[in-house]
Amino acid sequence: MPADVYANLKGYFKEIDPCVEPNTRRKQLDEVGKKIRSDLKQLERKQEWVCLGTMFKAWNEMDWGSILPPFAFEPSEELCFQLKKNRAEIDAQLAELSFKRAENLLDEVKKNNVARYTDRHRLVEKALDLVIGRCDSDKIWRFSNPPAHEIYAFIAKCYLFRSRLALPKGSSIPEKKLEALKKGWEWVKKTSFPDISDIDDDFLHWDKQQNQVVDNLKIEIVLEIKRWQPFVDDSWLKHQLECFFKNTKKLDENNLIHWRVCDIAEDAGMANKSKFLLKITQSKSRQLPLYQAKAAYRHNISMFNKYLEESVKKLNVPFSDPLWDETVKLIETAAADSRMNDCWEESAIQAWAQCENMAQKLRLSVQVRWYWARHRKLYDLAVRAAYKCKNVRKCAEIVDSQKNRPTVKLKNMETRLHSSNTSNEDRKRIEIMIEAETCFAIENYQAGLDILNKLPMSVPEKIRNLQDMPDDWGSVHFYVCEDKQAYAFVFTDQCCEKFTFSAENLWKKYVRWNTDVEKKDSFEKLCEEFGDCFKDIFCWLNDKASGVLFIPHGFLHLVPLHAAKVKKNGETKFLFEVMTCVYLPSWSLSPLKKQEVVNSGVYAFSNWQNWDTTPSIFCSSKWNNNQTVNNSADDIINTIKTCESPPKLLVMYSHGKHDPNNPYQSSLIMNKSDLTHQMILKNIETGKLSGADIILTACETDLAPGDMGLADEHLSLANAFLTKDARSVLGTLYECKEDKSLELISKIKQTPGGALYQVLQNTQRQWFANNEQIEDIAVYRVMGFPDE
Questions:
Q1: Residue 657 has what pLDDT?
Q2: Contact at 8 Å (CB) between 52 and 37?
Q3: Cα–Cα nearest to 404, from 373, 432, 433
């Protein structure tokens, strides 16, 4: 029967349209090609000219790729005459078919039957092309079935959905999202005036009401515009809301859109609109507790805590879900309201815990930057809440969980993939991952992303107990909020304490020193200011420890904290004079236990064009490698690769080059080729530097980018070696002096097995006693963990 044949031909579209993978699509087209030809011939024999013409046009418009459509007809006068005669009916039926195909495509995408973001985007675009392509040049739908207003609403729905596919990257909103919302708004306005090409008036369309479904779609697009364009004109928004309420006879308590519109309406000054939310008891929607918490904040404070806690429990959703942004914003609002004391603190801490759980599900460190790091405000709130609750351990856990996350995730991933018999495939996956990280750093997001998504999730490593400090040592965990209010959580093996101070002036002094070409007294001022900030911490720690492990945060990573001016026994001293100082980018990078590694061999590499004669310390007879001058990056990498056991000491002496735009390209300037941060991560296998001491006496080897981002990334060359399980790394914060670097190398070489930080401190004290410039002394610092 012709009806069955026509149904078969329509059915083929349902199978093939959603397929975007070229090889699969080609195979499907090969399989149905002959069937299509046979079915079309049947329609011709039965003289079903409208059905034949509809299918002939539809299948000819199909993208066959490299395949020629296998159903070409021999032209005949009868066929041409009938197709021409029935042209209007064919076009009308083709329009109806195109709409059904577009609906099927959108349904496929909404059901999550299509995994890849790019494929979902392509299918939505294809759905749009199918219907917009049937409009005339003035973008007007001229067919009666389906009616124009239905088509325009569908197009608006597609654009709305397309906007949701464009996820924000960090704090930036993609232009594609805003563009899709704008187009969706233009099309949905046309539902009221089907015969008009463009509707300039943004309000007139409400007067010609279609139905509640269309009005819901209109206001949903308005709400999305408000969400992603927060500075949208208030009067425009309020007028749209008023029009919606005027047309809506009764709010639907089961409709999420109505919850949102009532919530936004109250923010826009329309009183009591959200009260009805507090009466809803049956819905299981994960969004309802949030809107009820907002309504309780406005109308029934006694219920606020209950609803907020319920809202936080629903945060087991991807970080890109707006539920995160809105919940964090509500907690922030409550924290700033004196009426809400003891109503938000527990929820802030629980939201942080949810955030941590979700972060473990991110496979890529770039995802940490994009999505997790957007919620930096939540970490500020959680720290404040834990501080108010006097829970020092919880404070430190929250603080550390925000530090150096991408590096920690990368290290955990490599640890998981690594074994004593690491396969070539796993090694290649690690290399691809690190290459992609480098691309991500310069916002080349597509590079390697498909391969990386197939990597297993990194399993979080166990973290050392916060009070598990060596005898006579203390640790100071810093945290700097966005408003420059700073916190410090201090631990020894016996006790702990919390402190807070304003870092506003310290920040200003740091900026002045960092931009002061002549330097003058700006460095001394910086040391004095940090000494004032550190005063109470030093007083508490002074009689409990003789060494301090700094775990900085934010711009404090860039400040020589060991040069703080402190008071001891009535005298003003630099901190390194009275306490041994070591640094870590994150407590998560501290070793769980003492490394049981047999280290052997001392190696030196240099590339210095200014030497008339090679310094005696670089005489090759003193080192295990034959060539110690004019070394290339390959010399360093190949030596590390071929060592039978990890080296005791590895020295690199050259100029350094910091790249603030892409820190993975910061490098030691070696002969022929530079040794970059990326090369260290990519080419040095896990275990090859375990327990090694590393000396990097080039300039800026421990300098991280000035803007470490919300994920607090300390991407210095020193950190790259530390990530490879080095015992300790001596690096520099800014430009260092050649003679002092050589002296340090010599003293460390003469102290086999001695801790780098101890040799450095003794040398710095000696330099200061000899009246050397403090800025030339403080440039050096050691990253690592104190010896146990």
A1: 81
A2: no
A3: 373
CB 718 within 8 A of CB 689: no
CA distance 345 to 354: 14
pTM of the model: 0.81
Q: What pLDDT sits at residue 68?
A: 52
Tokens 């924290």 locate to: 335
Strands of 373-511, DSSP E:
473-480, 485-491, 496-502
> 690 near 769, Cβ under 8 Å?
no
- Rounded Cα distance between 681 and 42, Å, is 65
Q: Give φ, ψ of 664 to 5 degrees.
A: -70, -15
According to DSSP, residue 132 is labeled: H
Measuring CA to CA, which residue among 307, 309, 232 is closest to residue 274?
Answer: 307
Instruction: Report the DSSP beta bridge partners of residue 580.
Output: 547
- The residues with which 568 forms a beta bridge, in sequence order, are 571
* Cross-strand pairs, 236: none
- Residues of the chain under the 70 pLDDT cut: 1-3, 63-75, 113-115, 169-172, 199, 208-210, 363-374, 404-461, 517-520, 595, 702-713
| pLDDT value of residue 11 | 86
Handedness of CA 535, 540, 546, 550 (dihedral sign): negative
282, burial (CB in 10 Å: exposed 0-12, middle 13-18, buried 19+): exposed
Q: Are 519 and 513 contacting, i.e. CB atoms less than 8 angstroms apart?
A: yes
CA of 259: how far to CAs of 251, 324, 362, 437, 493, in Å? 9, 17, 31, 41, 52
Contact 426, 418 (CB under 8 A): yes
Give the pLDDT confidence score for residue 432 in this predicted structure: 60
Output the pLDDT for position 366. 59
What is the rounded distance in angstroms from the CA atom of residue 700 to the CA atom of residue 28? 58
Name residue 781's beta-bridge partners. Answer: 731
Residues 663, 614: Cα–Cα separation, whole Å: 31
User: What's the rounded Cα separation, in Å, for the pair 274 and 261?
Assistant: 9
Q: Give per-residue burial for 41-65: e unless 16+ CB within 10 Å, then b.
A: ebbbeeebbbbbbbbbbbbeeeeee
Q: Distance between the two ends of the chain, CA-based, in angstroms? A: 87
- What is residue 744's three-state secondary structure? helix
Nearest-angstrom CA–CA distance, 308 and 348 = 10
Q: Estimate to the nearest angstrom the gap between the alpha carbon of 487 and the chain centroid.
A: 25
The whole-angstrom separation of Cα 446 and Cα 318 is 20
Within a 10 A sphere around the Cβ of 403, how many other Cβ atoms? 28
For residue range 11-70, list pLDDT tens digits in order.
888 888 888 777 787 788 778 777 888 888 888 888 888 888 888 888 878 766 555 555
Q: What is the pLDDT of residue 610?
A: 78
- CA-CA distance, 720 to 694, in Å (whole number)? 11
Q: Is 669 helix (H, G, I), strand (E, B) or coil?
A: strand
Structure tokens that stand for 773 in this block: 């410039």
Q: Please report the sign of the dihedral spanned by the C-alpha atoms of residue 270, residue 273, residue 278, residue 283.
A: negative
C-alpha 132/C-alpha 280 separation (Å) is 41
- H/E stretch holding 410: helix 405-417
